[in-house]
Design brief:
This protein is an alpha+beta fold and about 425 residues long. It has four domains: about 90 residues, 3-Layer(aba) Sandwich (Rossmann fold); about 60 residues, ATP-grasp fold, A domain (Dna Ligase, domain 1, 2-Layer Sandwich); about 130 residues, D-amino Acid Aminotransferase, Chain A, domain 1 (2-Layer Sandwich); about 90 residues, Alpha-Beta Complex (Glycinamide Ribonucleotide Synthetase, Chain A, domain 4). The chain has 14 helices and 24 strands. It is globular, with a radius of gyration of 20 Å. The relative contact order is 0.13.
């Protein structure tokens, strides 16, 4: 199959790796990609948010399936342009992508569909935000209403910090103040063709910068899959009470959701609640879900893109586990320092069960260098979490990035004690 993937991060590299693992002879192009992706498949430099440019390239190159990785092209309506020109695309149109693009929209859909979630108040002014912060009380949860690259959420016991966060994001749009929900977080992906929904394997990501869930929110510092502590029937319950009602509500509103519905969940004492929806594969969870997928990813995504998901066999997953740890640049997430060389990848990849998904890399003067905050996702699979963690952290120890840092407690609660730095 001739496939075009839009995006440049570790999520897109993980998708490429899963497609290549099918050994089906796919002709894969990624726009714009990164150095790691370019080592595996063809990359081109075009604007992934420009629907006219993307669709013209797809038509000119006989692309059979477009997979949209990041949120920006979805919210920009790139999928709409592709569908208008008869190109199969895995990713929702602009209207349905508002599930991620607008938290206010997502809350309205959840309310209409009867989906369990926390109470929230939308604020357009600082006075409204302060009133809501006072009403909900501590711990305070303040979220940017629009896209914020994983950095728009603040959970804090500091009222002054909550107000400052609201004030900052009000310069970019409205904010939501929400009730605090306490419990274990779960990420669960559902593939949808606008009517049928099919779950993938659950994962848990680590959003805070530092060990022990300390420090600021980031785009994600690591993940693991599956989740052995989930109760039996969890996935079926989420499908029945959350994913199916959401997709049906969007279909009823003439905004069918075709693509990946990311359900960010929390398991509270009162039951499962939705923290947020995303409209695409999550990062870093994709890096631990797809390596465990044994059935063809291409068939699953093409069936969703062409409206025949109900005819597709359910995805199969390995009994192996997967752990991913993110290597970040010095100064991330506030002011990451870039341009520094990365060495030791060959030694890391020589470790059994280890792969590396590039997130922000380029080749400069024949050297691999970091170009952003989250640089690499080091992924390890193994029969158990202790072995997977050991492999992942041995691989990280082999990689050198001046000033680079990572969490040492990813999947620690389901495996062995923390490894040494």
């Amino acid at each position: 199959m001739r496939i075009l993937i839009l995006g440049s991060g570790a999520r897109e590299h993980a998708i490429v790796t899963a497609l290549l693992a099918e050994h089906a002879g796919h002709d894969i192009t990624v726009a714009p990609g990164n150095a790691g992706i370019a080592a595996d498949v063809a990359v081109i430099h075009l604007d992934p948010t420009n629907g006219a440019v993307v669709s013209s390239f797809a038509l000119d190159n006989d692309i059979e399936l477009v997979i949209i990785g990041p949120e920006a092209p979805l919210v920009a309506g790139v999928a709409d342009k592709l569908r208008q020109r008869g190109i199969a695309v895995f990713g929702p149109g602009r209207a349905a992508a508002q599930l991620e693009g607008s938290k206010t929209f997502a809350k309205r859909i959840m309310d209409a569909a009867g989906v369990p979630t926390g109470r929230a108040s939308r604020s357009g002014t600082l006075a409204e935000a302060v009133e809501a912060i006072n009403e909900f009380g501590a711990p305070y949860v303040v979220k940017a209403d629009g896209l914020a690259a994983g950095k728009g959420v603040l959970v804090t016991g500091d009222r002054t910090a909550a107000i400052a966060h609201a004030e900052y994001w009000l310069n970019h749009g409205s904010v939501l103040v929400e009730e605090f929900l306490d419990g274990q977080e779960v990420s669960l992906f559902f593939v949808s063709d606008g009517h049928t929904v099919v779950p993938l394997s659950p994962a848990q990501d680590f959003k805070r910068l530092s060990d022990g869930n300390a420090g600021p929110n980031t785009g994600g510092m690591g993940a693991y899959s599956p989740l052995p502590w989930l109760p039996e029937g969890f996935v079926d319950e989420v499908a029945r009470t959350i994913a199916v009602p959401t997709v049906r509500q969007l279909a009823d509103e003439q905004t069918p959701f075709v693509g990946l519905l990311y359900c960010g969940l929390i398991v509270t004492r009162r039951g499962i609640r939705v923290i947020e929806f995303n409209a695409r594969f999550g990062d870093p969870e994709t890096q631990v879900v797809l390596p465990r997928l044994e059935s063809p990813l291409s068939s699953l995504l093409f069936a969703a893109a062409t409206g025949v998901l109900a005819e597709q066999p359910l995805p199969r997953f390995s009994t192996d586990v997967a752990v991913s740890v993110v290597l970040a640049s010095e100064g991330y997430p506030e002011t990451p320092l870039t341009g520094r060389p990365i060495t030791g990848l060959d030694d890391a990849l020589a470790i059994d069960g280890v792969t590396v998904a590039h997130a922000a890399t380029a080749v400069s003067s024949n050297e691999l260098v970091a170009t952003g905050g989250r640089v690499l996702s080091v992924v390890a699979t193994a029969p158990d979490f202790a072995a997977a963690r050991d492999r992942a952290y041995r691989a990280l120890a082999a990689i050198h990035l001046d000033g680079g840092h990572y969490r040492t407690d990813i999947a620690e609660s389901v495996a062995s004690p923390r490894p040494p730095r």
